[in-house]
Amino acid sequence: MVLIVLLTSSYGSTLPLNVKVSSADIQLPASMSVAQHLRTVSDYWTTEKLLNAEAVWTTNRVSNETLKKIPDGDDLVVSIDGKLPLVKQTPSFSGRMTATTGRVFWSSPDNTRQYSCSASIVPSSSLDLIVTAAHCMYDYSFFINQNWIFIPGYKQGQAPHGIWLARRTMILTGWIQSKNYNYDVAFVALSTNLNNQHIEQVLGSQGIGFNYPRQEMTYSFGYPVNLQQGQVVQYCAAKTSRSTYTTNN
């Protein structure tokens, strides 16, 4: 297991001490404000494009010889509780998991294809953080930001809690350097909405933990494309076990 030490940045992210992170600011189009960019991107994402966005697959199992193992460390468990929303008109506690789980969407550089992944809001001091897979934020040679949006509570082409833009992405360097699935993790700091609200203020967040032992009961939320074409949030509940996709997991 990996030794976990709390590292608090301006984004409030919590990462293992021996894990390196590569980050990049999301650049807005020239002479365009966040509000203008949000309106432009919102116009791009028609209901048809949202419904037909392609899932990004990571189904190839990689041999232990191919992957670099994460160094072992002490079994220090880190857990950060989720938060309730601060804005009154937001979902009740019973609906928080649905509201804090959503889909990330982006397009190819030529805007001819659309893609999607799952993501979740997690606690941070900036109140703006989501976690997703690194392969949803970094292609083979560049950070993904073309028409990038996050839709919390997404359902069948609808955005019940609005559309949110990214302002900075943070990806584990192990993924960028070697596409090592042990490091297939990314954090994204979002911009505030048009009312200058932070997403965690509006919707709350899910808890996040690191270094838990295997055989722990776990609930996982997301939009698997093999169930209802990825149009409705799903969950599974089971005990964790060693992954067949990665080493030392």
Condensed summary:
This protein is α+β, with helices and mostly antiparallel strands. Helices cover 13% and strands 24% of the residues. The protein has one domain (21-239): Beta Barrel (Thrombin, subunit H), CATH 2.40.10.10.
Model description:
By secondary structure, the protein is α+β, with helices and mostly antiparallel strands. The chain is built from 5 helices and 12 strands. The chain has helices at residues 34-44, 47-52, 96-99, 173-178, 199-203, and strands at 21-25, 54-55, 78-80, 101-107, 114-121, 129-132, 149-152, 166-172, 186-190, 208-210, 217-222, 234-239. Strands 1, 2, 4, 5, 6, 7, 8 and 9 form an 8-stranded mixed sheet that branches. The chain has a two-stranded antiparallel sheet with strand order 3-10. A two-stranded antiparallel sheet has the order 11-12. Strand 4 and strand 5 (114-121) form a beta hairpin. It starts with 20 loop residues before the first strand and ends in a 10-residue tail after the last strand. Residues 1-17, 59-74 and 88-94 have low confidence and may be disordered. This is Serine protease.
**Total helix count?**
5
What class, by secondary structure content? Answer: alpha+beta
Please provide the count of β strands: 12
Name given to the CATH homologous superfamily? Trypsin-like serine proteases
What order do the SSEs take from the amino end to the carboxyl end, as H and E?
EHHEEHEEEEEHEHEEE
Query: Could you please say which CATH topology applies here?
Result: Thrombin, subunit H
CATH architecture grouping: Beta Barrel
Q: Termini, distance in Å?
A: 8 Å
- Shape descriptor: globular
Uncertain ranges? 1-17, 59-74, 88-94
Q: CATH class, please?
A: Mainly Beta
Rg, alpha carbons: 18 Å
Number of domains: 1
